Amino acid sequence: MTATKHPNAFDWARRQVDTGILPTAVLGIATSSGTTDVAAFGASGSRVARADDAYPLFSITKPIVGLTALRAVERGLLALDAPLAGAVPEFRRDDVTLTHLLSHTAGIAEPPLDATGLRRLLVDGAADFAAGSMSRYSTIAFEGVSALVEGATGGTLDAAIGDLAADVGMPGLTFDRDCNPHPVFGAAELGVDYDGFAALRHPGAGLFATAADLLALGSALLRDDGTAVHPTTRAAMLRPLTAGLPKLEPYPAQRGQDWGLGWNLRHSAPGLLERGVFGHGGWAGTEFWIYPDLDVCFVLLTNVASPGRLGFNADPLFNAVAAGA
User: What structural domains does the chain harbor?
Assistant: First the structure.
């Protein structure tokens, strides 16, 4: 499929590659009716990027894992106020619930991204602050979400992800690296053992997918037809849960966002024309965002660690997609 309906957005993606900020870029745009545009730019060494290539999602994993928890809540298997200690008895705090874990308000000290032994790190993590008293972005919290999902459903997180993928139409969604994803450039420069990290199958950052997979999810959430979650659940997951709380780095208050149940709500982001948007970004430059009022969503897949250090800024892409809707 070629890019025709959002030329400014695709020109932006091409420029990021042409100027050397991103090695590759796969940009896709969809509405509630399905994918409208998708195109790929650049290459990972000798491997030319294709629109159907798999990429590591990094933190876009978080809202997807969050959806598995919310689907368990819908089935009456799990409660939003379920304590983490109920699923992980070794976790000695009684103030941390599923809602805290999903909204980055659990206050569990964050280990390095590539640290091994996730369950041990969750259990042994120091209390950063009292749960619900402030917000600090957390990846280890989703090891707790995984534990609650598995305890409630009696199955594995992989099985819950598979059920979601089957319902929505995401055949490429996986924690398995054998999907032949593009490599991540620059991780070693930032002190991250990417190969070791990929082996963790991290529930907060370890999924792989194609643009088509995420666009299918975006279309389902735009239709709000119950395919991914019930409309009541979609409404609940978009309620800001961190409004009025102190917001600690790396998401201080001036970034103009709050957290819902697994989703980033950029309702006051100073660089955006249209702020009725929810979604998530990832460490290697990946972006997945949904505009319910405009009936459009977009996915950007790319593969360079922390591209902001290279001058990457996705806000112009947000604006080009919104203005082209």
Answer: 7-324 (3.40.710.10)
Return d(Cα 267, Cα 280) in angstroms, integer.
13
Give the model confidence (pLDDT) of 22-66 as tens digits.
Answer: 999 999 999 999 999 999 999 999 999 999 999 999 999 999 999
**DSSP letter assigned to residue 268:** T
DSSP state of 307: G
Cα–Cα nearest to 145, from 165, 118, 125, 173: 118
Backbone angles phi, psi at 65, to 5 degrees: -65, -35
Residue positions annotated with a catalytic role: 59
Report how far residue 273's alpha carbon sits from residue 96's, in angstroms, rounded to the nearest whole number. 36
What whole-number distance in Å separates Cα of residue 305 and Cα of residue 155? 33
Please, which pLDDT band fits residue 5 given cuts at 50, 70 and 90?
confident
Tell me the average pLDDT across 218-238: 98
Helix (H, G, I), strand (E, B) or coil at 309: helix
